Amino acid sequence: MKKFAGLLFILGGICLSCTNTVKTEDGDTESAPIKIDISKEGKDAGFPLFEYDSTHVFPTTRDLDVPEDGAGLPDGRLVVADDTDGLHLIEKDGSHRIFGKMKEKGYKEGGARGVFLEDNNKFLLVSCVYSGKIFRINIETEDTEMIYQHSYGVNNVYRDKKGSIWFSQSSNNPNGTSEALDDAFATPIPTGAVYMLKEGRKDNEEMEAKLVADSLYFANGITMDKDEEHLFVAEFRIDRILRFKIDREKDTLSEKQHYAFVLSPDNLETDENGNLWLASLIQNKILAIDKDDQSIHNVFSAPSPDNSKKQLEWVLKTHLGESIIDIGEPEMWKPLNNPLTGVFWSHDRSTVYFTGLGNALLRYDYDSEIEILD
């Protein structure tokens, strides 16, 4: 069941994308971002800039199990995805334990990917990329419910303030399988999608997912802007982030836009100013995208000669149509121990955490009062 997580160490899925403006069959315009510049350092635009060293590893025991995503709870504790148990609670001292009762409700080892704290701060959502299940956990009692099972795996999940749940499907891998998921990861295949589960069902009525975007190349991270007028989704396999306008009356997405081009974009989050943050897995970077001009800024980078070499080799082989499976090696992630997948904040926004496919988080003090410079 850990085949997919293992592939993330072997594969990176880089494919450079064109920036032409085109019209799709349904009449939507796909436009290039206003500005693309990932060479800028975060501090040049008022964003923080963090550097890697081992003192920021948390917990120091390095005994988490693939904490790909997480959330900060109001009491200062953290929850992170756990490959074996589904979800773990991390205390302030770094000790941790199983949180919720996901195994009792059908979670099987492997597949926990998305972790989302609902707006009421009372419930958590956890998605499973293998089984297609979405679990809802009561934070106070830890009671757990499997609220929906999709026909295919569910990568990431988001619940808006109106109560509707949105989730990404990376590929059409049937429940309990990973072959189609692995294929879409290795080679760009447009089997990704975004679905919405509408709030307002009657008691005991099964939730029904509505397809709102399809033909995506490994749909990954998903989030919304501060006013929840737009939805963002990362197309991991072809290095772009899409933005859609949300039509609340029709429950549809429109005005598809190529919001940014970033190598291997994974999980997405928005900061307190409405800027989009994300992990670029193959680059060992956390990036921030300015909401005003869409310029891209490094906020964390852990470079190495091996990583730079592998990025170039990856791009070359992808464009030549050659296999990229044989170029993966542990050295390419150094000085990190594993690929980065995402970012989340403590509930009071005093600390930022970077997640990954390893056994620990990276933890940094965070100043949310930094102003963006003109």
UniProtKB/TrEMBL annotation:
A Pfam family assignment: SGL
PANTHER family: LACTONASE DRP35, LIPOPROTEIN-RELATED
Domain SMP-30/Gluconolactonase/LRE-like region: start-end pairs: 132-299
Transmembrane intervals: none
Keywords: Hydrolase
Superkingdom of origin organism: Bacteria
InterPro entries, A to Z: 6-blade_b-propeller_TolB-like, SGL, SMP-30/CGR1_Lactonase
GO MF annotations, alphabetized: hydrolase activity
Protein name: SMP-30/gluconolactonase/LRE family protein
Gene3D superfamilies: TolB, C-terminal domain
